[in-house]
Amino acid sequence: MREKFDEQLDELNKQFILLGSVCEKNIAKDAEAIRNHDREEALSVFNQEYDLNNRGRDIERLCLSLILRQQPVASDLRLVSGVLKMVTDLDRIGAQAGDIAEIIMKYDFSHKGEDQDLLLKMADECVKVLHAAIDAYVRLDQKTAEEVLRMDDSVDQYFAMVKEAIIQEVSRSEAPKISFDVILMAKYLERIGDHCCNIAQWVLYIITGKQPGTR
């Protein structure tokens, strides 16, 4: 019985890590699509949303199967229930990366400005934060999970800087439409940072047993 449980738990870990890796790559692809004026790259991210949803549902079904059929002990139950919570955040990260891609597909690449430069740095930072969150789960590393919570502060700072840059741009521009595209993408990135924090908090729950708050 335990051998079967361990096999399913190993499969759960593999599926969760793979989903996290795809989400991480999609955020990076969004940034590259802007840098390279590549609508096809953005389209490839947008078209993955259905597949990501299916991956998330598969993980949820496996979690429920482990809980209902294998009757895990307390520490294993924390891990499985934690993954069940974290996959919801990965689903949202994947969806928000798709939302950014949809904007990029119609984005006016002639736009140049500090706001766009800051947006790209913000996207790069989100990739780092998500990578750290998944790494914290893989290694069940409390220190890394706590570091993710601190790293999100830099994402929030970039969001504030993007908004300030746009305020300055709008004050000088007669047609600030592009600025609204940038602020919307920045808001999605800010939410991605929050979901990364949620993942880190659930990792801490798996390690310590203390119920986290979510953002």
Percent helix: over 70%
CATH architecture: Up-down Bundle
At CATH level 3, the topology is Methane Monooxygenase Hydroxylase, Chain G, domain 1
Tally of domains: 1
Order of helices and strands: HHHHHHH
- The computed structural class is mainly alpha
Uncertain parts: none
CATH domain class name: Mainly Alpha
Distance between the termini: 37 Å
The value of Rg in angstroms is 19 Å
Shape: elongated
CATH H level, superfamily name: Phosphate transport system protein phou homolog 2, domain 2
Number of strands: 0
Written description of the protein model:
The chain is elongated and about 65 Å long. The mean pLDDT is 92. The protein has 215 residues and is mostly helical. It starts with a helix and ends in a 7-residue tail after the last helix. The chain has one domain (2-208): Phosphate transport system protein phou homolog 2, domain 2 (Methane Monooxygenase Hydroxylase, Chain G, domain 1), CATH 1.20.58. It has seven helices and no strands.
